[in-house]
Predict the structure.
Amino acid sequence: MEQEQLRHWIEVAAGRAEADAVLKNAGYVNVFSGEVLHGDIAIADGRVVGIGTYRGRVEYNLTGRVVCPGFVDAHIHLESSLAAPAAFVRATLRHGTAAVVADPHEIANVLGTGGIEYMLQATEGLPMDVYFMLPSCVPATPLDEAGAVLDAADIAPFYEHPRVLGLAEMMNAFGVVQADEAVLAKLAGARGRIDGHAPGLSGPALCACTAAGIASDHECSTLDEALEKLRRGQYILIREGTAARNLAALAPLLTPQYAHRCAFCTDDKHPSDLLELGHMDYICRRAVQDFGVDPVLAVRCASLSAAQYFGLRHTGAVAPGYWADLAVVDNLQDFRVEQVFRRGRLLFDHGQLADFPAPKPDAALEARARDTFRLPPLTAADFQARKPLGVLGLVPGEIITTDNGMAAAADPDRDILKIAVIERHRGTGHIGLGYVQGYGLRRGAVATSVAHDSHNLIVVGAGDEEMAFAANQVITRRGGIVVADGGAVTGAVTLELAGLMSAQPLEALNAALEAAKAAAYAQGVCRGIDPFMTLSFLSLPVIPQLRVTTRGVLDAARQAYL
Amino acid sequence: MEQEQLRHWIEVAAGRAEADAVLKNAGYVNVFSGEVLHGDIAIADGRVVGIGTYRGRVEYNLTGRVVCPGFVDAHIHLESSLAAPAAFVRATLRHGTAAVVADPHEIANVLGTGGIEYMLQATEGLPMDVYFMLPSCVPATPLDEAGAVLDAADIAPFYEHPRVLGLAEMMNAFGVVQADEAVLAKLAGARGRIDGHAPGLSGPALCACTAAGIASDHECSTLDEALEKLRRGQYILIREGTAARNLAALAPLLTPQYAHRCAFCTDDKHPSDLLELGHMDYICRRAVQDFGVDPVLAVRCASLSAAQYFGLRHTGAVAPGYWADLAVVDNLQDFRVEQVFRRGRLLFDHGQLADFPAPKPDAALEARARDTFRLPPLTAADFQARKPLGVLGLVPGEIITTDNGMAAAADPDRDILKIAVIERHRGTGHIGLGYVQGYGLRRGAVATSVAHDSHNLIVVGAGDEEMAFAANQVITRRGGIVVADGGAVTGAVTLELAGLMSAQPLEALNAALEAAKAAAYAQGVCRGIDPFMTLSFLSLPVIPQLRVTTRGVLDAARQAYL
């Protein structure tokens, strides 16, 4: 810290120098004392430096409003928003988000350490603190054909980066409990925090994970599960995102007894969800409105708690010495964010966002991120099945599937469609084929390069020609989602960054996504399912019963191909 | 962290390998959930690794007992115990103390950076985690003639030490608020936490200090003061020591609303207080018995809270991954510590302490620490006053003094005694003289080398010969407290380490101290005052009204010599 900087903060705090800005007449949430208090909030060089009576070059009259510390998302995969980091920040800054702790797991599955480096560079200097945890499980399983295999030595150099806070969610709890060599190397090499991901883990296995240093969990879906983990010392990151929502189950933790060990996170936020509901402001709103949580406690879990967990000593409070990252809300029931200050500058004001440039990663890195399809154009012959193959049965509202037997050909009349997973990272030529039932598509094909966790190219269709066409359209775009019918594109979302994200504004991206969804539904996809998300999970080899990977139909329970 | 170490912890936690030790049938304090829970506590290689059902090579049946995390003192000057670090640890380990955060301010005033180095070496490998904050104010004021002047550059190298956690209490709040250059350099150069010390500070001045990074305060004496500091973001270190006791005033903070920002500390603990009352166990006991505090919350403030404040991630809880530093108490009302585990080993068991060697600092450093009297023997002539001098009036129970006018000679019948402060660090020959009223000594003299903060040699006496004799006795001993009468020593405590501490066991030290006190009282010292502590504060040049330093009688309010 520069001495002259310190001097200026002191001069302003002591009242001898004018503040850059003063927020007047508002209430503010004091996350330390659990109160809403009043006082001028004086800002100098990006920090709050005083609460009391101050004058400033700019003064904001905030009568009737409440100033909250900028919100912190304790665990998110930015890639799930489909938006490039700058676009994500443009969409969430207006919701009062000041900091996120991101796990670049998806892009690392495509680009390896290049993906981590890309995200670091693409977030440098953004008007939001984007911190990272280093992906611990790339690929997610040995059955995945991802773009990279990251071991402990690969990720180790990134701990030097000032915005890297630790090792991201250790999904391989089984490997931890079994003391798997490669897993131990990652745990032993970790610096900072180690996040957990262990749905349902309990008893000695939970003890093994906490003894090994895993300090948080965001997968709790019942109060009992969360209480056991909290009692064993893990921080409970209460997740309320798009795909998984645990606030209803875990809201009873939001009392003074437990809240000091809880923080909020989203894990995944999809475009429409971000645009329509919001981000951490939405979690606060729901906690207060639906579950009667003390609003000040909710704000604390949405700000200071995560900062404390990660050791961020200037984040998460309205107090001298803390970053002047502030969210001004209408009241502590509705949490409508009216203004957002970033380092003391008013960046969002009643619907208007001050624009900022997107950071520019190195040209070579940018080029590499936009060139992740290492495969030739496909033809109908690539999708030809020489023998009967397993049929994945979809279950509405779930990501599990049923084993629906075998089929010899697609038959849209019986809702049997062909599905293919095409390896796209290394040009292996691997194409896994199978069938899927319950998707509902009557004609054409749907293809996507968002396919957890290895993000190969998935396509499902009524016929081989249609499948080749849709897949080639994704390849031509260097990533994205395509709905096709009769040799024409009926809906498309281009995701040119690693096949996962787009640099366009989230509103435009979402419009394209909704239009593509409409096209998919128009072509018969069942209304009860998300046409693209459903496909995205069909290649994740850890979820029962059947999955399809680049090598064919897999029985996930037996971890064996049919 | 070694991978093989990690593997073993996991093997034991998972139940595949036997624990080193298992604590069975006890309740334990869960500082995360605020409960007393039950379960076997399994220990492996110094850590708690499992809570549940375990078997171990050694099993302890603790039926009816409660296991607490080992206690943490968030702020203490070890020197105040008069005991060398190993002796201090022998005395406090039995009270369940697992860690202390010490400010070696006193010894640094004598030995400069050598004092810091001495304390680091003298605590290396002790069965207690002794962390340090680096002294921020040596000397305490420009009027002090201390053994060293430490600036920012002097202390900077010590931040590299793994047991150094930051910058110790910044007592010069005035300098911070005034943005004093040397003070700013220390703040700007600090790494880790910066502790505060600012009694009564509020308003813009408090904001200036918190904006400057001062993150705690242990000087709050009223609830309002503590609440204001807590609201501004400072951690409140609730002090209950020997000289200052704030628990009664601050106990209302010990609720779930505020306790997450509070920790316990002692600041100073004198020998008899440590031996008779205890340490952090005593604070818990008082909090519960006298102020009705929830015992689990009290334990949290005595353990996890300080660990969190200082970022010690394996300290302060009974949970997998935490150090197996445990205090077994009879119950959560009386907090009688029956057994103490350190890194899983039972070191204290129903009155019996397993002995351990005292660390041996480098020979040269040890020699230097035992050679801090740089002055020739004194004679009566050194105490001869050539003109009338100011009279310090003692106030029973306070450390302030009154201005009792001038005197030309000692007159025990009127309770006017001569007092001298003799510079002992650099051989300057400076001797400041004055008079003191209200001490009560009828004959002989009392001398001490514990004299805040510069620890020169103070002597008070009925006559110049008596003063020279007592002072020379301290010099001969290379430090300590001497009561003399008619050319004979009537009571003495040898403090051979920097003139501040003794390596002998605290019990023996305390016996000598009590005997010396009895001698002082027998020679007339007023019963209402501590004969030695009272003297120790008379040279502290910041406390009104009159003080005496190596340069004579000072009006502290005007900061000018009479």
In short: Chain B has 18 helices and 30 strands. The CA atoms of residues 445 and 461 of chain B lie 4 Å apart. Chain B touches chain A through 63 residues (CB under 8 Å). The longest strand of chain B covers residues 164-170.
